[in-house]
Amino acid sequence: MNEEALLARATEERERIFQRYERGRDNLVGQIDPWEDPEFEDYHKTDRYGFIHDERLPQKTAPQKVNIEVEREKKWVKMLGTWDSPATQEKLHRRIYKGIPNSLRIKIWGKLLDVARLRAAHSGKYREMLTLARRWSTDVRQIDSDVNRQFREHQFYRARYSEKQCSLFHVLCAYAMYNAEVGYCQGMAGLAAVLLLYMDEEDAFWALAALLSNSKYAMHGLYIEGFPKLTRFLEHHDRILTKFMPKLKQHFDKFGLDAILYSLKWFFVCFVERVPFSLCLRVWDIYLLDGERVITAMAYTILKLHKKQIMKLNDMDLIVNYIQVKLHKDFGYPDDVVISALERSMEELKRARLDTPGPPPSKELPQRTLGVFVEPDNKSKIGQRAETFSETEKQARANVILRREKAALELQELRVSQSDTVSGNWDHSPPTSRSTSADSLDSHTWTHL
Amino acid sequence: MGTREDEYDYLFKVVLIGDSGVGKSSLLSRFTRNEFNLESKSTIGVEFATRSIEVDGKTIKAQIWDTAGQERYRAITSAYYRGAVGALLVYDIAKHLSYENVERWLRELRDHADQNILIMLVGNKSDLRHLRSIPTEEAKAFAEKNGLSFIETSALDSTNVEPAFQNILTEIYRIVSQKQMRDPPEGDVIRADVEPVDVRPQDSRKQCCQ
């Protein structure tokens, strides 16, 4: 096929995908492939947030807790009336750490992210971006495929082309046009899907915009090419582990377990699908109030609370499964206990001046004016992968390799120093360390750096 | 999980690559857990799972690395190609673009993986007969021309998933065991050409996890 034909094919595909979301589920009867659409089954149970479970619900909400929440709601409603007063700002911290009542998240999250102001200040922008996306978006294919894989166990997202799936599609397409440097990056669907549980489409769009470009959250740097903010936060995470939990760090290193293998959803989507949803919402409440240092502290808290269990697991597979799967199903501690621990972690890290890796360097912030249309080049219109790595990609890749090698090297040094003092016989050193250390001396590596 | 999975003769690292949405994670869960989940999630970064199989009375532990298919993520995922002895390069038989991108994926492998990596081209979603856009013969010819093995699979109805993994693992085993016969590993010395393969006998391995 020549370029013209490839472009025509891409246009046709974008058009077809958009049309399906515009028509929505009710107008697509008989046109949705069965494998695309897991049937809603009555015998599943749906929890208070709308997630469907095969078995009994995790962490039942006790009746007295519901009463407490009703009492809290009253206080919160009152507080909403006097939002800008100094008294409210004073109370806010304490109350948010106790948890925002679920029925009021819709309002409070909007306040914390300043959604109403953004929406009013850029009136018409969302529609404009959506219209542009329909004509120009190069991210439609990826967004379409992720929309149908996001929260499929949730009653609102489950059905193909359901209202929520359509909203998610629109928000992501519009945002990809609004912030062309980021476009769409996998992970953003998770953020938008959570926001859409509490906001309408346009509010969710502005909330997403705030999460990416407001300096308090600055998630822009997480999603751009080369993931500079991820690199910076992972390094900081390693520093925290080395200082506060060196044994656990060695345990990870021993199995060649880089933080990339267990923590990406912590950083990219603020713990969505890594801790139970009720706890995730509590962390989001605090994140929206206090910003990125909450992520750093929560990452530390998770490992701190589960250190003993993790130290017992002697296999990379088991450790990752524990951190990613087991803790999502059952965190093992009541949410309130985790949040208290999180608060203590934040203080502890602050005392050690490790609460933040520092403000984002300018390259992690949007460089182009947001909301200004830039026509994509033909290559991205067609959708083929770029043939060669850009300098940024090469650098990011080198960073990942370097992190792994550094960990292997530190472990090797530790082994040497231990074998000097202890009468250890390291002739039969573990294969994991052997293969990684052989790796790290591999000349092939350094030529890439 | 939780069984004595750590007793094995060989550990082979295999990567699963290919465009987003072609079914890499589904192939992995079909092979390691014999599950197909309609509620599958997109993979962020890299994930992995293991399963052990027997070949010639030897236990081979396959450590399979699943990667995010979106181009943005290649800066991370390509760093995990190192040390892999096999790769399953997956496309969707119903999505022509995912097949067109195979050449680009091959290049990424050549640039970033070990030279001797064995590559198998996998046309997944063979259950979608009515939507097929890549004829089997075309992909087969392409694979032959490029020195890849080839198979069509369906993670959904589980057609050929087991053979796909078995074939590549067996092939890797043959190469490694022949190499060992030619140059038996001496004591603790790791040979560069066998370096990615963990070829330690069981008894010494047990000492690692005291």
Describe the overall structure.
The complex is a heterodimer of chains A (449) and B (210). With 449 residues, chain A is mainly alpha-helical. Chain A folds into four domains: 3-55 and 122-215, putative rabgap domain of human tbc1 domain family member 14 like domains (Helicase, Ruva Protein, domain 3); 63-115, no CATH class; 223-364, Ypt/Rab-GAP domain of gyp1p, domain 3 (Cyclin A, domain 1, Orthogonal Bundle), CATH 1.10.472; 397-448, no CATH class. Helix content of chain A is 63%, strand content 1%. The longest helix of chain A has 31 residues, at 391-421. Residues 422-449 of chain A have low confidence and may be disordered. By secondary structure, chain B is an alpha/beta fold. In chain B, strands 2-3-1-4-5-6 form a six-stranded mixed sheet, with helices on both faces. In chain B, 31% of the residues lie in helices and 22% in strands. Chain B starts with 9 loop residues before the first strand and ends in a 5-residue tail after the last helix. The interface between A and B is large, with 60 and 56 residues.
The domain count of chain A comes to 4
End-to-end Cα distance of chain B, whole Å, is: 19 Å
User: Which structural class best describes the helix and strand composition of chain B?
Assistant: alpha/beta
Number of helices of chain A: 22
Give start-end ranges of low-pLDDT stretches of chain B. 187-196, 198-210
CATH topology of the largest domain in chain A: Helicase, Ruva Protein, domain 3
What is the name of the CATH superfamily of the largest domain in chain A?
Answer: putative rabgap domain of human tbc1 domain family member 14 like domains
Oligomeric organization of the protein chains: heterodimer
Order of helices and strands of chain A: HEEHHHHHHHHHHHHHHHHHHHHH
Quick check: average pLDDT of chain B? 86
Helical percentage of chain A: 55-70%
- The percentage helix of chain B is 25-40%
Strand content of chain B: 15-25%
- The parts of chain A where pLDDT drops under 50 for at least 5 residues are 422-449
GO molecular function (chain A): GTPase activator activity; small GTPase binding
Organism (chain A): Plutella xylostella (Diamondback moth)
InterPro entries (chain A): Rab-GAP-TBC_dom, Rab-GAP_TBC_sf, Rab_GAP_TBC_domain
Region (Disordered) (chain A): 419-449
